[in-house]
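Reading a protein record of the kind used here takes little practice once its layout is understood. An example of such a record is reproduced below.
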Amino acid sequence: MAASTTNLSPLSSHLSKPITNKPPFYLVPQTLLNPLYFPLKPLFRTHKPHCTVSSKNPIADFFPANKPDPEPSFIPSFTDDDKPREECGVVGIFGDPEASRLCYLALHALQHRGQEGAGIVAVNNNVLQSVTGVGLVSDVFNETKLSQLPGEMAIGHVRYSTAGSSMLKNVQPFVAGYRFGSVGVAHNGNLVNYRTLRAILEDNGSIFNTSSDTEVVLHLIAISKARPFFLRIVDACEKLEGAYSMVFVTEDKLVAVRDPYGFRPLVMGRRTNGAVVFASETCALDLIEATYEREVNPGEVLVVDKKDGVQSLCLLPHPEPKQCIFEHIYFALPNSVVFGRSVYESRHVFGEILATEAPVDCDVVIAVPDSGVVAALGYAAKAGVPFQQGLIRSHYVGRTFIEPSQKIRDFGVKLKLSPVRGVLEGKRVVVVDDSIVRGTTSSKIVRLIKEAGAKEVHMRIASPPIIGSCYYGVDTPSAEELISNRMSVEEIREFIGCDSLAFLPFNSLQKMLASDSQKFCYACFSGKYPVMPKEVKVKKVGDFLDDGLNGPMDSIDGGWVRGPKNIDVEKEIDPLYQQSKI
């Protein structure tokens, strides 16, 4: 891919003022943010940066001049599960001579957060160099490409699109040159005021070359009048609404920032050689032998350079962080610590709660692999019933496959999951899954288990019913497609064909979280949004996800729908939740 340099058009000066009213940033000592955190000393000698950029990321490439707006051309790309999907994972590394290779390994650890594209930007001799591509991390990178990314500083990204289609030009990190230098950015989250900001910027002459909301951030940095650079990031973030955990890289600095609500996770660690590492999950730190130190706090900006080490810049603390509860239910790996809690322990307790509050006479407990396994272990331990592998998952199913002309019922599910007849035949089976979104996959799993000879099938779901779409960086269907938004629990049971069905009670979830319960976002369960979505587009997948198959892209009817400008929360909330006054 040919190298390119991006020039962001300077806009009129009025845009340097805050577009939204938000509390100002203030400097605080690192030790005040975390009393256990030792004082930081300069790690390296200083050097004078230059303002050159060499980028292989096509942020300014190949967008036809006769296409007025990239939004109408959005084409959703679907994964093989009827599940919510995390948008992406990010990594940042400072001060290691093999930064790009460590970044590559960390992205492997975060592959579950996005499988549509991957990229790394490294800094060498004050030049930002980028390699991006569509596909898995192992598809995008090899020894030759990693050798093109020398340097002691790098950021990386794995992508599953929620805003923007999966074209190469939307694969991050993005790299842009502006009048004072160059900057790379990798973003996890979703901006709910993206369209408004983009319209203002375009009215003032900005030219957008991707359909990603992340590009807005680069334009806001370019037009900011603040000095020095990290204050440009602060200035830009003051205008953003929604979810963002981002890592930036310049010629001499690595910057990590998290939105004031802390929707998406971002952690900091350190290797034995002093290299500083940021990542979406602690599992990425584990793989590259970095020690977890702490989270990046909601509203915090951390700046790392050779002169001053790690410096912290913070927004005024938000009274109520709203961290995504689905990180603990589904997204994060069980071996990660997210929002200060072990994901494994959370899921195990979810299973225990289900066994206590929705018991049923059974002979065996099985899981829908892989995300239901830990909750199933918790259920089995509490119920005193053996846990066994009743479903075997194939990890070698590609994104496309050829079905025989003689149609096979539930073809997509059968490719991925194989029942073990010896475990299921003649048994009363409890099946534990993490969530039910549209219900199509669940109905096929129940049918699969019954066809293997199960006497009874009892579904236990380790989350409350999902009744609302997520607007903060998670790919969920529109609200009308969420089965729990349209049906009662009994109606869902009849639809999926199981003998009994129970969800994790919402009140029990909050009780389990104890004093931290107010720090989590439950919008997908309650319809109450911490930051109201006014303009975000969400995917409307219809029957395209049926069987988990990919079809031709032109077969998608109405692949995107506009999110409601003024959501009627009362209509979104299930009557059960209205009664409990969540």
